[in-house]
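thought: fold this chain, then report.
action: predict
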Amino acid sequence: MASSSGTKKTRAPTPRRQSKAMSQAQKMFVDVQDEDSSAIDSELVPSSLAAIAPVLRVANQIEKDNPRVAYLCRFHAFEKAHRMDPPSSGRGVRQFKTYLVHKLEKEEEEAQHQLARTDPKEIILYYWNFYNKNIKEGQYTKEPEEMANILQIASVLYDVLKTVVPPQRIDDQTHSYAQDVQSKREQCENYNILPLKAIGAKAAIMELPEIKAALHALQNVQNLPKPSVHSTNAPHDFPEERSKSIFDILDWLSSVFGFQKGNVANQREHLILLLANMDVRKRDLVVYTQLRSSTVQKLMDKIFKNYWSWCKYLCCEQNTRIPQGSHKQQLQLIYIGLFLLIWGEASNIRFMPECICYIFHKMAEDVNGLLFGNVHPVTGDTYHRSQTAAPDEEKFLRTVITPIYQVLHKEAKRNNGGKASHSRWRNYDDLNEYFWSSKCLSLKWPTGLKEEFSVHSDVMPNKVPASKSMPKTNFVEARTFWHLYRSFDRMWIFFIMAFQAMVIVAWTPDGSPAALFDEDVFRSVLTIFITQAFLNLLQAALDIALSFNAWRSLKFTQILRYLLKFAVAAVWAAILPICYASSVQNSTRLVKFFSNLTESWQSQGSLYNYAVAIYLMPNILAALLFFLPQFERIMERSSSHIVTLFMWWAQPKLYVGRGLHEGMSQLLKYTLFWILLLICKLAFSYYVEILPLIGPSKSIMKLHVDNYEWHEFFPNVTHNIGVVIAIWAPIVLVYIMDTQIWYSIFSTLFGGIHGALSHLGEDKAMERRNFASFAHVWNEFIESMRAEDLISNEDRDLLLVPYSSNDVSVIQWPPFLLAGKIPIALDMAKDFKEKEDTDLFKKIKKDDYMRSAVVECYETLREIIYGLLEDETDRNIVRKICYDVDIFIQQHKFLNEFRMNRIPSLGEKLEKFLKLLLSEYDAVDVYKSQIINVLQDIMEIILQDIMVNGFKILERYRVQIQSNYKKEQRFERLNIALTQNKSWREKVVRLHLLFTVKESAINVPTNLDARRRITFFTNSLFMNIPSAPKVRDMISFSVLTPYYREDVLYSVDELYKENEDGISTLFYLQKIYPARFVCKLDEWMNFQKRINDPKLNYSDDDKKEATRHWVSYRGQTLSRTVRGMMYYKHALELQCFLESAGDYASFGGYQTMESSQGNERVQALGDMKFTYVVSCQLLGALKTSKDPRDRRRYNDILNLMIMYPSLRVAYIDEREEFVNGRSHIFYYSVLLKGGNSYNTEIYRIKLPGPPTDIGEGKPENQNHAIIFTRGEALQTIDMNQDNYFEEAFKMRNVLEEFLKSPSGQREPTILGLREHIFTGSVSSLASFMSNQETSFVTISQRILANPLRVRFHYGHSDIFDRIFHITRGGISKASKTINLSEDVFAGMNSTLRGGYITHHEYIQVGKGRDVGMNQISLFEAKVANGNGEQTLSRDVYRLGHRLDFFRMLSFYFTTVGFYLSSMVTVLTVYMFLYGRFYLVMSGLERETLENLSIHQSKALEQALVTQSVFQLGLLMVLPMVMEIGLEKGFRSALGDFIIMQLQLASVFFTFQLGTKVHYFGRTILHGGSKYRATGRGFVVFHAKFSENYRLYSRSHFVKGLELVILLVLYQIYGHSYRSSNIYLFITSSLWFLVGSWLFGPFVFNPSGFDWQKTVDDWTDWKRWMGDRGGIGMHPDRSWESWVDGEQEHLKFSNIRGRILEIILVLRFFIYQYGIVYHLDIAHRSKNILVYGLSWLVLVTTLLVLKMVSMGRRRFGTDFELMFRILKALLFLGFMSVMTDLFVICGLTISDLFATVLAFLPTGWALLLIGQVCRPLFEAIGFWDPIKELAKAYEYIIGFLLFAAIAILSWFPFVSEFQTRLLFNQAFSRGLQISMILSGRKD
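observation:
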């Protein structure tokens, strides 16, 4: 091998025998090398050896050019690695060295010398050649990126050269080359968009005047103090010399505060692009040398608006002041640059915007002192302007960011992965809100961040015990349902008071609302204010109790407010009842005492009335302010002490949530909406729910019952209160829930009306574009669909339009619109009998398309023939014919001069003529003669047969067309070369289509998705769209996509890998994506035609790669998302070209531009306006993973960067570094771009620690990459989204919405966009989700945005005002668990901070959704978990209190209120059944039914109809029907609704209702919410029974069986309204609910009723139940492991949750108590001993079963005979006991069944209590029996479900029906799904 001396070859030491780890590592390297041998060495370097990666990359790059030099580079890398880590202690270092040694040994023999005989001479000559060829000659011609790579290679080569060649043998020429390379490298660095430091050809983007102006302003460092050189570095870095030069303002700031080099470079480009894009808008480009002062001021206003608000809130002076006489623009840029540098390096602290404000405040203070003063205002230290020491570049990270991060990390550890109670640790909001207090200003800077902030400012650090938890800040997220009342107390108080008032009025004799005017009734109604007083007292108590853990962080004024609120509420709760009682006769002595004191008041009126008037004064004042929103907004945002004191009582002073009031017009809109809704709701509740129950309730209360059928504990309770509660409880729940129903109805109606109106308007987009520009846009749109294989070549030809219409006097519409018009016009002319021209032309002009087709054909045919003719006489003949045609049409003599009956023969000849012109030919003479013959026939028909006076033209030009060889023939001289002209052939092709295509336009294109896109695009042009600015003037924007580990591209193996049914992904897609009408033109065939086109010349490898892309573009993959987002770049470049090309666009075209120099300018503008960043946080792990799928994902991402040069990928790099001999892991945010087969690192910014360990994964992933985005707007795109080329054109329009200020309101901060769900055609389930999601992202969000003003961000493709959000915490919130639904919190945060969110439907993006039942359920569970966490959050609480009353109602019913209403729906079922069960078992129903008036009342059943409507999911369908009706017509909507019901949509929605309720309730009660990966696979596979059981056992099956028992018992023992149709409807709806919950997963499970799969599922389920659990056992493999995971939420639940869980469990004991008294063996005894004896029987049974179980375990093997004898004795004893019971005691068979129904719930209750109290039972050693009991119940539940499935599976038609049910949509497209599921492919 080569040695460092270069004098001789030495072999590397033979490595020791490889360990197992080494062998695996070597195998990993070899495997990867097979995949991508060119990049293996440089891409898989251990992180501790990252410094050698450039050397290995250079070796790979030059290997083909000179293998020997590449070998020397690798040897140098090996030696360098050995020096860096001699003992090979780093992770993977030993394996890597071993691999590299083997590679070097192999290459030493294979790599031959090419330029010399020795290594030193070889590398010197190669270095010279490389320098002369690439650097000396290419520095002025090569691109900057290429030059940067060349200089990198040259630098590495010189380093290698110095190790191979002895120093004394390196000549001067080599030294001079190296010095030149070094000097050029200092001037050159890798760049993102702007090559600010580059060598090579001047980049077009740097020639833009706006970039030059911004750069010039930033480089103004005059009069700034120059810091001296400072050489101290971070302790783990090597010492290095710092540059003395200051490049610009950001360099100066870095030299003062110590910012990282990567951060400075990143923010430099960021700031330049911001300034340039803002400054160029509406700017004259002729005189453009410097920035406008208003530009910098505007940017400063946007960036520092939050900082200034913070300073105003804390009453401190701003540190962004501009002193008199200073350079204003320079100082402003210093402040802006300082903020951006802080933000760019803040890492996780970016989620704490006020913390960043504090950091900026302190650092700006230092800047001011440095520039304008010499004494620090706090410390008194002296500034030295010229002697400032330059700190190392990690000082800011080390001294400011890292201490705060360490606090975050410490708190994150305390949350136990999100399982600990929220009240026990501080999240992002708690730590950020610490900086809402002026206490933060007293922290020592910067040491206080580490010494004081980490504990708390009001507690001394040395006095705080290590275990003492820090207090929450301002709010505590306690797990309790009381948050729903606390956050929305105004709503609950309103509904409770309304209910009370309606009951009081209905209780009057006539029950009429007019009774309210009666004095006594009115006085009674006034008692609602007593209720309000007690409810306010409850609210005050909750405020104290739920915020108690935060009291140490609260100000004294806040605590005083809480206490005073409680005291005042308590006083009013005492005063109002006393005052009311004083006005009532028969008062108590206490009341009479107070009455005597106030006797003078009572003489003038009721004391209670006065008290109520005083009590309502704050409410009256609030009502007055409600109609003065502008005034109230000013008051809330005011910092005046008087105003603050006035507002102090109304609401606590908080930094966010101030001034959220809308303008008067918007306020009136949503107020009217809710007033109308509440009127309808209250009227319905009064007349349907309350009034009908009053009469029966009065009768029941008067009824005396003494004949109970069980042991009644309270027989003397008056008024039968138990019956009244049982009847009224469901009604009260329906009253609470039905507002959600009314909201759905009203939002559907208002949203439909709004949507219909928004689709009206003029075609403003067409008015703004000339036809040539629109033709370019349209044709690129059509070509993109052909490239996506949505349309065929034939469809494409019918859809394209000419680029220029200059040769034709009419608009040249796409041929498909003109299809069949020419044949119809010809037939019309042939059959026309009239003599008047006007009648014929009137019929033609009646159809605009027909008129355009006729005129275009005539004019185009004239141009084609005229162009072919070379002889001037021939041209004159054609010219004369056309002249006669034009003249006779003008003179209305056309029909007189032309014979129309010969038109068909002319048409046939023309078709033949056009076909010949388009045909390929070999012999020119033959081809020419054929054209001549047909052309002569055409002219003969025209002149002799059609034209009446055609012979005159012949005579005039002495033409003879007869067949006479002696005479000259006309029309023989043709320009055949013209047939090869591209633009001329396009005219012929179009004319041929117009003549030959006779199909109706309705079938073009055949693909439904293509037709949908065309329809939406054309319709959207008629909507109210803002005018599109020029590309240069548009708002710049970025797109950010978070990526974790999803599929990028499907591999070839994955395409052909078959599932258990023998179906591959490729086969499935070939069947699922056919065309809708013509099967041969499906997407797969379109794809096959494209790749088999000889012109494209695809190789076999190309075809495989194209197939991978074709499949991946139809899945939910990253490649699909990236392709869609890069359409933005393509659209911008086309739009820029059309703006700059002018008339040239009509001729040269966009394709011509792509190869011209103008392309550079167009690309430069595109890069300046658009940036796309994919945040692949695990890219480094994917690169080094041993999993081949992960490594393939890495390679696919690399290929995406190469395919799309504008794509940027950000990732978190974990790098191992040694500090003081110890290994440490450091983390970096890195930005990459694609190079030549490699990625290129652009920026590297060190982080204070692992960024994803603090909060939720997705927001942390977005946060680390957001610093690399650019522009003023940011679009968030998820991994399952897509974009369309035609929609990308409208991005300029939608971005203009940011500049609109509707109705004088603030400018929008989030623009909501419409989405299209592209997965809706896979199955019926997919269509349900697609329709539901479509209605949500259209009609629902439409009404949320306007008029309700409560739209938030829902994880969709919304566009953020980027500057607004990066200064206010980012585009999402990330606190662990509480921000599980991180997206919606971004919207809430934006609203609370004064943002304004809109929704726009003229642009859409694509989105994928889950398509399988289990995946959908996981998604619904995730959303329900998120809403449960939202309920506990401070954001919901603050919005609930800060929004006005009606907007608060909108907020509630569109967020957590929907889930609470779903829960109340289910609770209504439980309450109804348990109430009826109580009445039946107690005998109260029998007694009350004897009263005829009660028997005739159907009030309860009528009221419960509303619950049934909600339960069946009909309200979910309402918005769907409305939106489909708006877009496709209401006939289609009705048809879709019927089809959905036939496909059991109600079963699906009812089932998902159970999912929502279960996870929402459990999250609030116990927690346990987490991110649930749903999967994005293709094939809808069969889920095994055990999988379904694991998912739905607790959420659906158990609850369903509980309801079954209730319904059965009620049916057996009940005597209800058997003849009532309403009652039958209710009971049937309850049975429907039960059936949906028990069998929904199996109905929607593919092959769920296939007999063979049922048998396999049974075997699998028994294995799963029988396998023992243990450490490391996955829940999928063992029931014991699963049940431990299922109870995990109980392990971390608080005592409140456990107690409430036990209380809920107590309901199961009522079964046994009620049933035992109805047994025949009880002989109607009501003694309590009957119930006691039942417990004795139950306990005895359990003990016997336990004995048998223990005996089997202990004696079953060694004492088998004894155990069998014991079982026999037990059996005999059991039989004897049962005989005695039957014979002596009167036991019956029905008693046995009833006993089972009685004991099963009791055992289940004992089991649940045991699970709740698991720690206790484990301590006493009683957990194993409970676990055995649980397994017994699991067997029972599973057997019951399996029995029903097995019976249905026995009948083959059930499986066929289910397949048809699931895949009806696929059947309509010709998909033989039964063949797919059975695995047959032919």
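thought: worth noting. The longest strand covers residues 1207-1219.
final: tokens above.
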